[in-house]
Amino acid sequence: MLTTVLSVIQVLCCIVIIAVVMLQSGKSAGLSGAISGGAETFMSSGQAKSMDAKLSKATPWLALVFVLLTLVLNLI
Question: What is the pLDDT of residues 33-74, one digit of tens each?
Fold first, then answer.
């Protein structure tokens, strides 16, 4: 029972990690980022950076939870 619950939590954690990584913007946007970057307003670019910062901070914590769940499942 405990193994099943932890396995479900691990799969959900994995899906959340994938979503968080996919939602982050790339470090180098390239030419398309330079062209579309001029069209952004000050408020929208500030919101994007704060969202990227939150996602960047959440990624290592989610990865840590995933690794810990993996270790616990291997020990059980």
Answer: 555 555 555 555 666 678 888 999 999 999 999 999 999 999
Which residue carries 């396995």 as its tokens?
7
Q: What is the amino acid identity at position 74?
A: N
Helical H runs in the chain?
2-23, 30-37, 42-75
In angstroms, what CA-CA distances link 70 with 4, 16, 61? 13, 15, 14
* Domain layout of the chain by residue ranges: 1-21+44-76
Say which residue the tokens 């030419």 belong to.
31
Q: Are 15 and 23 in contact (CB under 8 A)?
A: no
Of residues 14 and 43, more confidence is placed in 14
